[in-house]
Amino acid sequence: MSPPSSLRTLVGSALAGLLVATALTVPGTAAARAPDLAAAPAHAAVSQAPTRHLTPLGPVAAAPAKLRPPSAPAAPKAASKGTKAVVTWKAPKANGSPITGYVVTPYRNGKKATATSVDAAKTSATLKLASTKDTWTFTVAARNAAGAGPASKRSAPPRLLALPDAPTLLAATADVTTAVVSWRPPASDGGSPITNYVITPYIGGVKQPSQTVPATPLTATVSGLTAGATYTFTVAALSGQGLGPESAPSHPVIPNESPWVFWDGASTEVGVAYSHIVDVIRGRSPYTFSVTYGALPPGLSINPSTGSISGLPTAAGSYALVVRVTGSLGLIGSRLITIPVTPAPNIVIASVPLAEITGPYSLRPTVVGGVAPYTWSIAAGALPPGLTVDPNTGQINGIPTTAGTYGPDLRVTDAAGLSDVQQIRLVVQPHTVVTLTVNTSSVAFDSPITLTANLGPGDTAGTVTVFDRQRGGGIANLGSTTVMFSRATITLKPPAFGLNELFVHYDSTLTTAESTSNTVSVQVNGVPGQLLIQQFRQSGLANIPAQFDQFVAIYNNTSIPMQLPGITVEAPGGVTVVIPSSETVLEPRHGYLIGTGRYNISVPTLQANLVVPTLGPVPNTGATGLRLRVPDATGTVTDAAGSTPGYFTGNPLPAFNSPPTVRNAWVRIRVRGNPQDTRNNPTDFRLVSTTLGPINGLPSALGTPSPLRQEGPFEQGSILQTTLLDPSKAANEAPNQQIVDATPTSPKRLIVRRGITNRGITPATLVRLRITTLSQPNGAPNPGVPPPPNPAQLRLVNPDNATATFTVGGQTVTVNNLRMDFPTEDPPGGGLATNLTLPLTIGGLVPGQTMYVSLTFEVDKGGRFWAGWDVDAIGGGPVTPPGLAARAAVTSAKEKAANKASQQAAKSRKLTNVQGSLR
């Protein structure tokens, strides 16, 4: 695979980093194409990495033309009689999509009344008016696949419906038993569209059977005539109001005896000699030819003796006229004929695009008028070297090789030998060179850099797309920005640890040329605390099969996506796990779960992202320890947790005195949706277990191992907000909070009821509450509040019933009594890190919707209590998933408003908790 095609493959799979451009991409600019890397350095190898979550701004197909609704029709005409009104109109421009129907809207004394839909095949509508005493007007709007177009101007008040006027009969010529009759429509249709015409033959003033013909064309053949009889014809118009009066009769014709006039003349062209004869059979020569209606094209005349129409046409158009032929016996035949005259050929070139060396060039002129086929050539001067003209189509194609200004004369010659010559001014500018600079060569991960691209020497306009050739050889598309005044400035956060080799690719909107800049290098260094251990478990004995074994969940604690390949997890004894290149990115506030073959929290939402043979630690010691390294130049350790020296931050965690055989995990405390990172393990972590009491000599809090996964829900408490069930009551009043006294068969319970409201702009398809603080032995403290001297001891338990109903604000609402997710066991119950999933319906929790829920706690000991949770969710946030360059580069007004609202909510949001006193 060549470098360019390799790049095109990789652009769809590499990470899109956070991009904030000083000038945003605007509609109409060229799509970002993958650059040609034929001249790239030899070491810039390109490898293929599989796609997972990412859809960066890579090569895209040209967007289809946007559909537009139809134009507004002209003001309709209206007529009425009693309560019946007929509205007629002409079809407007469809604007690229067929018209599918019309909407006719009546206005009664200027106020809109009920509209009527009409099929696309009709351009009239019959309406029933509510009153005959009011003033009525009407508008018409057309519809197509893009929607309804603008309405027309209002009609004048309706005139009185009447029969159509009489048509004007223009010509009649007879064959053996038939005659061809032509007419002109009536001056007025009486306000109702003409549906048919009725032709009536007469013999000596005696009416013969009429024949009804369609409304178009205005020519018809009357059949069933008798040879030798003398006929005249009338025509009358038929509408919804009835049959109008007959026209004046035609001149008489005698089938098989009168001159039979016919015409097969072709079109002609301005400036081309024309000659054609009006053909006649029957009748008796000599004939006399004359024009009785209409006129010949200017420059043409008819020979009254021969019927030859000849001359040199001087004006284009379509000319309708009636030719009358009178035989020597006085018998007449007349025929309506049409002579189209096309204009002489004229070259039309809307604009001549700028050309650029190495850029494919194409210019397609058009010709108006003339007679096909056409022949194209260069009459004088010369095209730029590298370009040629197609003699059949006139298209100028090629790749120019020499800069300069050229003025060739382009000639077109039509089939009649007429020509047009037009000089074109074609400018070829030098190939655009893009020079890229960066404001720093080294930066911390999640910190911005500024790239500046200068373009020249010719005119430039279009976009530059930023690419990152990364440590593993992959290429990431970081987004695009607009070139302004031959310059583009881009502020972005490099997406990869280690060496980021950045370059830009220029797509011109002035020419078809592309250009790739030089490469600038930026070393991106990790910072402690950016990648954290969220939860982990190590059995302490590598050679004894434990029922519940090892896992670690790592957490992206930055604002941009973090590349997973190359991140290393280390454990004592030389255990090293390197996340492979088959993995992609870890979004902000998401976790990545690594487990061994014995990790068995085996529910679908908790399956490990990566399965490894072991996560340590030193066999048979009971010691624990894990640390995380990012693949920057120095292998920065961003976090460590455990009891083994070198594998903890601050002070160590205590070690087990024997292998634990119950579900447990070291869980990092969360404060207001954020992981706590004081760089001291005993402060930041709590040991949680699904059982009560110490575990193998270590104090533990009741809780649930529930690590975060790459694809799972993540903390969105600022978007999916907790609200009171009844806002008119205090938080500690019923029904928001209820204390159920103990009975001989049931301990005291605390029930907390709240609403979860989606303040985002997309549906939330999975929502759960994660317990982050609870007054319990060895639990997490209430953030920002000194521990009370006599804290209560609570356990989260499952409710007795699935739902409950309450009256709030005069309405009945249903509260979902939440149950704890696996692997929590009840009894004893749950606590820290325990999840409770909301039972959403199909479609999820839509924006603005609130679901009411309750949490049930058993009270093991009275006193001051507190409980808090985070809301984890999939969905609810901006339309574009977190981390995409497209989101950062171009954000819709709707997304901006939603983001601003969520940021303001986050600033004002307190910990979602309850607190009080239990006796």
UniProtKB/TrEMBL annotation:
**Which CDD domains does the record match to this protein?**
FN3
Q: Which InterPro entries match?
A: Cadherin-like_sf (IPR015919), FN3_dom (IPR003961), FN3_sf (IPR036116), Ig-like_fold (IPR013783), Striated_Muscle_Regulatory (IPR050964)
Fibronectin type-III domain segment(s): 69-162, 163-258
Supply the alphabetized keyword list.
Carbohydrate metabolism, Glycosidase, Hydrolase, Polysaccharide degradation, Repeat, Signal
Tell me the domain of life: Bacteria
Could you tell me which Gene3D superfamilies the record lists for this protein?
Immunoglobulins
Record bears the keyword Repeat: yes
Question: What residue range is the signal peptide?
Answer: 1-32
Name the segments for region: Disordered.
49-84, 895-919
**Start-end of Low complexity biased regions:** 61-84
User: SMART domains of this UniProt entry?
Assistant: FN3 (SM00060)
Q: Which PANTHER family match?
A: NEURONAL IGCAM-RELATED, TITIN
- Recorded protein name is Fibronectin type III domain-containing protein
